[in-house]
Amino acid sequence: MNDSINHNGISVCHDGKENYVYFNLTPRPRPKSRYCQYDYRTTDGELFSTVAPTLEKCRARRDQWLIERAKQ
Question: Record's InterPro entries (predicted)?
């Protein structure tokens, strides 16, 4: 199984889609060592990436980014 959301360091996220994967910072799972790597690409191709403890926090950051982006 391939858990990567990138290929050779480049995001494979398609326009208008999100990709995410959970990973551990330590070899053995411990509290607060599990994180979510998250990519979202807008329909016009701009990429948003973040890492947070949960998918919900990643999506909240994305939503805030989209709000700020719309103001520009």
Answer: DUF3873
